[in-house]
Amino acid sequence: MFQNPKTSVLIFSILGLLLFTTSLQARQLRLDIDTLLVGVAGSEPFVYGEGQEVSGISVEIWEELAAKQGWNYYFKSYTTVDDALHSLEQGALDLVIGPISITSNRVENFRFSQPFYNSSLAIVSRSEKQGFWDKIKPFFSIKLLIAVFVFLFILAIVGTVLWLAERNHSKDQFPNDPIDGIGNGMWLAIVTMSTTGYGDKAPVTLTGRIIAGSWMIISIIFATSMVAGIASTLTLASLGKSPVSNIEQLVNKNVATISNSPSQTFLEEHYAKPVEVFTLEEAISKLRKKEVAAVVYDRPQLLFYLKNHGDEDLFMAKAEYYKQGYGFAFPLESNLVYEVNRALLELAEDQDTDEIIDRYLMRNE
């Protein structure tokens, strides 16, 4: 095609250089200093503020990362993570930063960086102190009063049967007067059941002794069951005032959580009744008003709230569920992920990530 070999080499060299330059420019297109538009969404302590006046764990990690890479960027705030991800999917953003959970559903539509924080779901409930009335209230419950009534009715039956068997042979112990006779019979039944055995009353007839002996056996079972029932009543009453320690205690109970968060699905899977709210403050408010039994949400956000508000009447359970990582989200075709992951590794190796997180969260908690 070309008569001069040198001309051919020169032309092909120029074409190769152009192709390489075009490829390099395409790969770095989204790294252009004027093109990085960063969506910001999420809650404290990962995201604070709006517009360019934002801060928080996610924002500081991104700022350190971008400084290492020499990138310039522009923040755009969103009310919710879902809104930001929708804009990302529509091509309006280069990436989204914040406490974005990396889930199997989301990876179908987005690419994610490696996690910069490993989170989990936690439970916060009221830790109420029992007053004097709370401690004695179980003794006035309907169930306990019914049990006492049944006990007295049975004692009356036993006392009557003993009186009928003994009244003609032991009138000094069981007089003919029904009130005195049945009363003495009930007294004998009580001291027999309690194994006190004062000896002031005792059957003298064979029938009376058979009745008393049978009552001894029956009363052992009856007394044991009654004591166990009273203990159960007191225990359940005490549990009603105790903080929630695991998800099993929230079955069929109203539980506040942030709308469209992974915690909502988690509650439904464990047969709790999610009460959707838009902010953590609203969820805690419902908990204080006793409109819900607990609040279930991401552990770091709950820790941060308790740390800053000093709520001694709120308790966070040690149990952790739905462990998942927080990362940055990118479009499926984005070529930023590799550079971001490498920078995140460098930050982790230099302990910069831990230092940022420690400033916001008490790590020992």
TrEMBL record:
Gene Ontology MF, one: ligand-gated monoatomic ion channel activity
Membrane topology: Multi-pass membrane protein
Solute-binding protein family 3/N-terminal domain: residues covered: 35-363
Protein name: Amino acid ABC transporter substrate-binding protein
Cellular location(s): Membrane
Family annotation (SMART domains): PBPb, PBPe
Annotated keywords: Glycoprotein, Ion channel, Ion transport, Membrane, Receptor, Transmembrane, Transmembrane helix, Transport
